């Protein structure tokens, strides 16, 4: 009997059943998808790093090294399991082309290497160690899509040629956020190409399980071992690998929370609509002796059945959506392991979403117990009669706009040139890097002198970065990457304080501030000469704390005038602005053309191109999430508006019938409904725009804070925010309104003579 009633009800109310399933499936899909993608990403990265045996500590070094000294240090350390020195032949991007596509505009440090013997292996698509044959080169997999490279293409290095034999996964440098990329070649080809580039070293250590990486890093620095380059640790490598795709997953998770809220609200009103229609039937069931609890159980069983279908559809949809969304993850990191654990977690996540919705359903069904049998039999009264049925339309309109704008605003912020101020980079128009070459400082100064004579250049600033030994307020020694120069010309964004103006001031990145436990006003002693400290320390007051995501987010800025020659310069950067902003692209192109044949280690790019090169992968992932979010928002708003207007029409059916009896046409009644609906839709759009910019900014800030980009503000696209999103939402609401108002034409004038179905 119970099953027959449920089946009959579902057949009689197919639209309601389908709508409920859509909301349940959307909630289950998005939460399940977030868990599936996050689990797959984490597992893929873990499998890649485990297979490749990523080092726990890596010191990049440009210059001479004493391998015997390194071996002796390694032997004396009980926490070292293995040590190796890897060679990296840094090449000028102007010399490189693959498949006829030049890498001159590539901002990465590209170079050749050979397969390692102990750990830090470069692996292929099957996660096997690659052993290239003579004449072969394996290209970083992240370049495969970016440059459209195929197996069999020719890689040209100056006048030398190598055949692309395949693509490699590099557990350290897969992410575009890593500033270097390794091309794998045979040892004979490496030796043949050596005159074409500058060799540097990767000094790598595998530590025993449970070892303290920070303590080892301090011991390495105190031993005075080679350190002319960035230091990278296992956790930092894992973070860089996870960030680009992790941002997309966090956006989907945020959207799933909004969709769950909307689904609960919508299903509540679906239930109220159904109870309005079934008022007399409910009264009849109660009149024949069926208890209130049994009636409630009957309805709940229907929604329980719908939730099963919704959960099933949601899980299947999540598996389907995960294919295109996870394609880049699989390409970069390989297939995920432990799927036997990830799939159950995804299903549990989908079930959790259904459980939350069903709890809301059970509470909403409790309203039927409050209506008396007599009132129900006569079709009088209503469920939740004090509720404004148009207010939920406004709320969900605002939520839908919020769902669209947050991913859009995150994407436009990261893609905007102004985002560099959160990256620890001054907001200029052009960035010139001088690194991975001999006599970095001299070449940088020569380039600066030439730029100073350029009539097209309005202003410029030359920065030198070196590794300095510092002593913190508590006496702890700390090795600090300090960028020296005039930081007032192209300042970054400071969370506290401001840029250093004098030699006794220093600004530190937020991550360094936390790790070093220093704040504005604290004093740090800086030793300009990292070797024997004969120059004596400089006492620097922390004048500012800024956001940074470069070099692992651990940098500092100072004006150590007069000490530049006492500390080796690792790399130099020139920021500049032009008299005519529109000439930035042409100026960079002319600069590259002029110096393309010089072996000077100089790379130039507009800031916009620099961001695309560093965060293009992240931006593309967020764009995918934005498309999913926008489509979901419009679909949800369409269904919600359709259902809530139907509920309003049912409640006001008697009033509409009376109006027709008095001479009003269906068009008149429809016009009134349209006006009422858009009295809430339009304010909902306005509130959604505000929420997508202000509270959305706070939520996005929490996401970007995981990258080291703190205290930022949205850089919005006004056309997208104030035109495209509102028009898309208004169109979805208008289409739903048009579809739902067809019911008005079915109302007859004589219906008002019977029992009223609306208010008492």
Describe this structure in words.
The chain has 760 residues and is an alpha+beta fold. The protein has four domains: 1-56 and 234-385, no CATH class; 63-212, no CATH class; 388-415 and 616-760, no CATH class; 438-598, no CATH class. The chain contains 21 helices and 21 strands. The longest helix is centred in the last third of the chain and has 45 residues, at 607-651. The protein is elongated and about 100 Å long. The model is unreliable at 755-760 (pLDDT under 50).
Record the SSE blueprint:
Layout: H1 2-12, H2 14-52, E1 57-61, H3 67-76, E2 80-90, E3 96-98, E4 101-102, E5 109-113, E6 136-140, H4 142-146, E7 154-157, E8 160-168, E9 180-185, H5 187-193, E10 198-207, H6 213-222, E11 231-233, H7 234-277, H8 279-287, H9 292-325, H10 327-333, H11 339-365, H12 373-377, H13 391-415, E12 430-435, H14 440-452, E13 457-471, E14 477-484, E15 494-497, E16 505-509, H15 510-516, E17 523-527, E18 538-546, E19 556-558, E20 571-578, H16 584-595, E21 602-606, H17 607-651, H18 653-661, H19 666-693, H20 695-705, H21 718-740
Parallel strand pairs: 5-9, 6-8, 14-19, 16-18
Antiparallel strand pairs: 1-10, 1-11, 2-5, 2-10, 3-4, 3-7, 6-9, 7-8, 12-20, 12-21, 13-14, 13-17, 13-20, 15-18, 16-19, 17-18
How far apart the termini lie comes to: 33 Å
Low-confidence stretches: 755-760
Question: What is the helix content?
Answer: 40-55%
**What is the average per-residue confidence, as pLDDT, rounded to a whole number?**
84
Shape: elongated
Radius of gyration: 32 Å
* Count of β-strands: 21
Largest sheet: 11 strands, mixed
Structural class: alpha+beta
């Amino acid at each position: 009997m119970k099953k027959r009633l449920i089946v009959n009800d579902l057949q009689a109310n197919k639209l309601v059943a389908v709508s409920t399933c859509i909301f349940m499936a959307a909630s289950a899909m998005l939460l399940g998808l977030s868990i599936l993608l996050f689990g797959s990403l984490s597992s893929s990265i873990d499998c890649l790093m485990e297979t490749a045996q990523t080092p726990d500590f890596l010191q990049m070094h440009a210059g001479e090294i004493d391998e015997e000294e390194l071996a002796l240090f390694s032997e004396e350390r009980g926490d070292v399991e293995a040590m190796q020195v890897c060679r990296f032949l840094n090449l000028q991007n102007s010399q490189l082309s693959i498949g006829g596509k030049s890498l001159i505009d590539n901002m990465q440090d590209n170079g050749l290497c050979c397969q390692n013997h102990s750990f830090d292996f470069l692996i292929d698509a099957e996660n096997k160690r690659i052993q290239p044959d003579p004449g072969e080169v394996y290209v970083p997999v992240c370049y495969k899509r970016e440059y459209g490279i195929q197996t069999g293409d020719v890689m040209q290095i100056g006048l030398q040629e190598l055949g692309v034999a395949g693509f490699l996964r590099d557990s350290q440098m897969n992410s575009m956020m890593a500033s270097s990329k390794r091309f794998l070649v045979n040892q004979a080809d490496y030796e043949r190409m050596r005159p074409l580039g500058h060799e540097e070293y990767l000094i790598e250590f595998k530590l025993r399980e449970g070892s303290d990486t920070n303590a080892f890093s301090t011991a390495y620095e105190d031993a005075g071992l080679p350190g002319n380059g960035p230091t990278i640790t296992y956790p930092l490598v894992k973070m860089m690998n996870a960030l680009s795709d992790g941002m997309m997953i966090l956006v989907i998770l945020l959207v799933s929370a909004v969709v769950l809220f909307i689904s609960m609200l919508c299903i509540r009103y679906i239930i109220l609509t159904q109870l309005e229609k079934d008022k007399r039937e409910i009264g009849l069931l109660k009149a024949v002796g069926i208890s209130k609890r049994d009636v409630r159980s009957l309805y709940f069983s229907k929604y329980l059945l719908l939730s099963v279908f919704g959960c099933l559809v949601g899980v299947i949809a999540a598996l389907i959506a995960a294919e295109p969304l996870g394609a880049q993850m699989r390409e970069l990191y390989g297939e995920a392991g432990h799927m036997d654990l990830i799939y159950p977690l995804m299903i549990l996540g989908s079930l959790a979403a259904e459980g939350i919705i069903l709890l809301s359903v059970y509470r909403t069904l409790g309203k039927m117990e409050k209506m008396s049998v007599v009132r129900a039999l006569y079709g009088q009264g209503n469920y939740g009669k004090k509720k404004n049925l148009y207010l939920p339309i406004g709320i969900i309109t605002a939520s839908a706009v919020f769902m669209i704008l947050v991913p859009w605003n995150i994407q436009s912020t990261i893609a905007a040139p102004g985002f560099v101020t959160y990256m620890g980079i001054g907001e200029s128009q052009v960035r010139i890097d001088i690194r991975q070459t001999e006599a970095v400082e001299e070449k940088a100064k020569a380039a600066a002198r030439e730029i100073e004579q350029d009539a097209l250049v309005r202003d410029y600033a030359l920065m030198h970065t070196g590794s300095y030994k510092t002593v913190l307020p508590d006496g702890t020694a700390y090795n600090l990457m300090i960028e020296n120069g005039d930081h007032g010309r192209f300042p970054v964004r400071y969370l506290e304080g401001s840029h250093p103006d004098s030699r006794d001031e220093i600004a530190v990145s937020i991550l360094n501030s936390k790790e070093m436990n220093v704040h504005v006003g604290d004093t740090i002693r800086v030793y300009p000469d990292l070797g024997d400290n004969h120059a004596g320390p400089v006492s620097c007051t922390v004048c500012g704390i800024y956001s940074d995501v470069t070099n692992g987010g651990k940098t500092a800025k100072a004006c150590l005038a007069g000490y530049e020659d006492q500390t080796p310069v690792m790399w130099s950067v020139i920021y500049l602005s032009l008299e005519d902003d529109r000439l930035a692209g042409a100026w960079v192109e002319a600069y590259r053309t002029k110096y393309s044949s010089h072996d000077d280690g100089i790379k130039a790019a507009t800031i916009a191109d620099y961001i695309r090169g560093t965060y293009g992968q992240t931006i593309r992932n967020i764009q995918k999430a934005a498309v999913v979010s926008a489509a979901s928002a419009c679909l949800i708003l369409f269904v919600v508006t359709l259902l809530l207007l139907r509920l309003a029409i049912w409640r006001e059916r008697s009033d509409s019938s009376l109006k027709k009896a008095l001479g009003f046409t269906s068009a008149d009644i429809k016009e009134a409904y349209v006006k009422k609906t858009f009295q809430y839709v339009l304010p909902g759009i306005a509130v959604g725009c505000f929420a997508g910019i202000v509270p959305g900014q706070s939520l996005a800030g929490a996401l970007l804070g995981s990258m080291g980009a703190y205290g930022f503000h949205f850089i919005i696209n006004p056309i997208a925010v104030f035109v495209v999103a509102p028009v898309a939402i208004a169109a979805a609401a208008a289409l739903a309104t048009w579809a739902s108002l067809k019911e008005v034409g079915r109302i007859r004038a004589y219906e008002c003579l019977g029992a009223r179905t609306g208010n008492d």
